[in-house]
Amino acid sequence: QVQLVESGGGVVQPGGSLRLSCAASGFALHDYSIAWFRQAPGKEREGVPCISRGDGTTYYAGSVKGRFILSRENAKETVYLQMNNLKPEDTAVYYCAAVAISTCPVVAARGSHNLVFIEYGMDYWGKGTLVTVSS
Q1: Residue 10 pairs with which residues in a beta bridge?
Q2: Are 92 and 83 within 8 A, CB to CB?
Q3: 30 phi and psi, to 5 degrees?
Q4: Which residues contact 109 (CB under 8 A, 6 or more apart)?
Q5: Vertex 126 angle, CA 123 and 129, to 5°
Q6: pLDDT tens for residues 62-96?
Q7: Are strands 18-25 and 10-12 parallel, antiparallel or unpaired?
Q8: How far is residue 122's CA from residue 130's CA, in Å, rounded to a whole number?
């Protein structure tokens, strides 16, 4: 079967850390650019980070830049999202997504330094893992 499987979610206190994993089953993850999206209760889904297949360039949403680190280990067909200094507003279901293009589908938002992550056209989606940041 072809799927993405996320793991590593859980409950942590503010300021704590978690590492999420995204593993491919049935296809070669190293042939895809990989992004993470998240959706908090009552809010729209938003892109968080992305790593390009071609040159390994990473992109981060302004709200997580400097706190989250995205990396990939091709030998294991796995992508890792290290989340540090977590805040209550990071609480959400986190989804892994893969797209068969060499560069991440991101564009600069007008009038700001934020990036817009394009989710349309993603080839595979995981089912999500819940991250809860609470004291």
Answers
A1: 131
A2: no
A3: -70, -10
A4: 115, 116
A5: 155
A6: 999 999 999 998 778 899 999 999 999 999 999 99
A7: unpaired
A8: 21
